[in-house]
Design brief:
By secondary structure, the protein is α/β, with parallel strands linked by helices. Helices cover about 30% and strands about 20% of the residues. Strand 11 (about 190-195), helix 6 and strand 12 form a beta-alpha-beta unit. The chain starts with a strand and ends in an 8-residue tail after the last strand.
């Protein structure tokens, strides 16, 4: 089959690789019909996530048709399914609490030591996202093996197009969980750093949860315009002092809740961000954390901090004193996708949530390398790239 493989920083290629096979009775094989490039994939593209190996198949946002099942799978051939990016057993201590991204059995035994050393405990497995998260082949391919297929995938109606439900795989549940972790109360003012896919879904979710005002922060004009479509007020951090603007907009109090949807590759010419960049380039640090620093400092006393954004390693100059002295609550974590999928699918079918607004480009799988470069280099116009295996190449 054809699949997108990682070969190093800014080097991804569509190669011919062996077809996946059933390895466990709970496995299923899915023929991919749609797969997306996630903002988190750019962290792999930029070389920030450790334990990647040449030839690893990328992709963790995908859906398709069931073509083969193991004896223990509850899926049936020809069903259309969306697959969560988290690989979870469904029966361990954490899965029983619907904490699917903390699954005890999602990682193969050979991979658990890596996560144990890095983070103190292993987490759930993830598709296409390094050997620290299991080394599983991802879904930017023609076919994919889905472990624990009796727990993960959700069956979707045949009459609904892929574009409406594809993002149940990751970014829609992630934006929703981000807003849920912000513990939004009716009348709240919520500030969201980053108007990428997760940030935009967090904006939409915050309003659905009762926020009176949502203030979206970014520097890409088109992304800020998309946030305004949902009713958000906006701040362009290249044109405005974000902290001063937030205090002015909230009467000197600060937002009730803040959401960091940016993560380890924060942009902007700020003193702390420049220092983080120098440390990263000289191997003295791993992450640029300007957005979470700013969010903590801007949040009102007694407020809530939600951090859906990806961070990979150790950081310094984290405002721990402000977090404590201001009495803030911080919630974070990989998304418990399986927990949110059923309700969010119903919301889509009832047209309470729109997802298609985000898609800016649809490309054949064979043009995935161009899609990565487009998304990486032009995040104003390129808000989301969806790849279609089998789609004809565009005429030259």
């Amino acid at each position: 089959m054809r699949a997108l493989t990682w070969h190093g920083k800014h080097d991804v290629r569509v190669d011919s690789v062996p077809d996946p096979e059933i390895l466990n009775p709970r496995d299923a094989i899915i023929k991919i019909t749609s797969t997306a490039i996630c903002g988190s994939d750019l962290h792999l593209y930029d070389g920030f996530i450790p334990t990647m190996m040449a030839g690893d198949i990328l992709g963790h946002e995908f859906m398709g048709e069931v073509v083969e099942v193991g004896a223990g799978s509850t899926l049936k051939k020809d069903q259309r399914v969306v697959v969560p990016f988290t690989i979870s057993c469904g029966s361990c201590y954490h899965c029983s609490k619907h904490q699917y991204s903390a699954c005890e059995n999602g990682l193969p035994a050979d991979n658990q030591d890596i996560a144990q050393e890095m983070y103190g405990q292993p987490m759930a497995g993830l598709f296409g996202y390094s050997h620290m998260t299991g080394g599983y082949a991802g879904g930017q391919a023609e076919y994919v093996r889905v472990p624990f297929s009796d727990v993960g995938p959700i069956v979707v109606p045949d009459g609904i197009e892929d574009d409406k439900v594809l993002f149940l795989s990751d970014i829609l549940p992630t934006g929703w969980m981000a807003a849920e972790n912000a513990e939004i109360e009716p009348g709240d003012t919520v500030a969201v750093w980053g108007c990428g896919p997760v940030g935009l879904f967090a904006v939409q979710s915050a309003f659905l949860m009762g926020a009176e005002r949502v203030i979206a922060i970014d520097h890409f004009p088109r992304r800020l315009e998309l946030a305004r479509r949902f009713g958000a007020e906006t701040i362009n951090f290249e044109e405005t002092d974000t902290a001063a603007a937030l205090f002015e907009m909230t009467g000197g109090i600060g937002p009730d809740a803040v959401i960091d949807s940016v993560g380890l590759e924060a942009h902007g010419f700020f003193a702390d961000n420049v220092l983080d960049q120098i440390k990263k380039s000289t191997f003295l640090g791993t992450d640029r954390i300007h957005s979470i620093r700013q969010a903590i400092l801007a949040c009102r006393k007694g407020g809530r901090v939600s951090m859906p954004a990806v961070y990979g390693g150790f950081v310094d100059k984290f405002p721990l004193g402000a977090l404590m002295e201001k009495g803030l609550t911080l919630k974070t974590g990989q998304t418990h996708v399986q927990h949110y999928m059923p309700a969010l699918l119903n919301a889509i079918l009832e047209e309470k949530i729109d997802t298609t607004f985000l898609i800016s480009h649809i490309l054949p799988l064979e043009q995935a390398p161009q899609g990565y470069k487009m998304f990486h280099d032009n995040q104003n116009e390129v808000t989301k790239v969806v790849l279609k295996p089998g789609m004809a190449l565009a005429a030259e």
